[in-house]
Each structure stands twice: as structure tokens, then as C-alpha cells.
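U., I forgot to send this yesterday:
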Amino acid sequence: MKVKTILVSQPEPKSDASPYHDLARKQKVSVDFRPFIHVEGVSAADVRQQKVSFTEHTAVILTSRNAVDHYFRVCEEMRFDVPTSMKYFCMSEAIAFYLQKYITYRKRKIYYGKQLFVDLIDTIKKHKSENFLLPSSDLLKPVIPKLLEDNKINYTRAILYKTVCSDLSDLEDVFYDILVFFSPSGIKSLFQNFPNFVQNNTRIAAFGQTTVKAVAEAGLKVNIEAPSVKAPSMTMALEQYIKDVNKK
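Result:
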């Protein structure tokens, strides 16, 4: 069956230069965006129940913009004045630059990796004397604590925000040729909103092995998988699939 409509389970890109917009234009398909999950902050009172003392930490490990936002939010709610001596270890340069929203960038000690946490661990190892705080959501990639523990890093995890399923009830009678997922949480949200979902002719695109596994465990079929050697990005995988089925 030909592809005419696609639903991407993420927020719509702010830039017109998004590859999804290019995909829609080049392949003459309709691409809609809708976050299947969203983030909600944990209150300062709930954070205190985790028995995490912000004052005891000399460095912060930041794995996302959400981690940055909620770290400073909770600091403010707790009336904790983040010292200028605080060191920031960011998973990517983009996250490091995002810190400018909250601090005077050039006056702080900021370190960052390339993109993956494994790229950052070598830098963290050079600062083993620090007492690290790891702000995170309730869902944390297992590789992060494993790398920290394997390298004997002194750290404390603080759950400052949670990943929550979004309300998708308005989509109940809307059907798409392709649904695009990027995490197991997206699959969870699909069935929480539509417990009786049946795949039928809907194609499912999944990014990453954990997402592919979640799709299979839900009894669904993955039709489009990324990343791969031929398609390192989701848009490339979609384009290759659409070209193939729409030419028939």
C-alpha cells in the first residue's frame, strides 16, 4: 500500500529546515507531529524524600536540556543558590550552550562530550575527586549508571522529572499509514491511550534497538527500522521505504 500520511510521535521541529519537511515536500506525503509522551517536574518536596542534598555536590552531570531545566527549577524551589564553583559535565556541546539560559557561561567550569555518554566518561574520570549529582527522569538509560559505577565515580542520582504518557484521545478516529516511534515510552503511550489498537495496514517505524524490541513485545510488526548502514537517520529510512512502496 502506498504511503500518504505519517505521524511522528515527537514535537514538531521549530526549524523549516527540518529533514521531515524536506521528506514531505520531496515525497509528496503529509507528515504530522504529536508527542506521545511529555515530561512533568517532580516537586521539591518529593526530591527531599529522595534524601538528596544539593549542597554536598561539587559537580553536575547533565544528559539533556530537560535535566538542565529541572535542575535549576528544583534549586530555585529549594532556595539553593548554585555556587559559582559548581562544575558542569554535559553530554553534548548543545546541552553545554543551553546552560547560558541559567548561568554566565564564560565564568563557569563547563565540560562536554561529543554526543554519547561514553564520550563524556573519560572527562569525568579526570575529576574523580568531585562529588557528582546526576539529575534525571524516572527513565534513565542503563549505560549511564553502569559507566559511572564501573569507573568508580562518586555520584548521586536525583529524579527531578518524570516521563508521562500524553492524552491522545482526539486521535481515536484518525488513521495514518505510518506511525514513527523513538522510545519504548511511545509504545506504552499508544496502548495506554488505545488499549485495543490493532496494526492492520498501519506501518510502524522504530528508531533504536530498545524501541524495536518494545514494538515486538507489544505484538506489533516493525516495517521500518533505523538507524542502519543505509539509513543512519529516521528520515532517510522513511524516504527509502516510501520510494519503494509508492513506485509500485
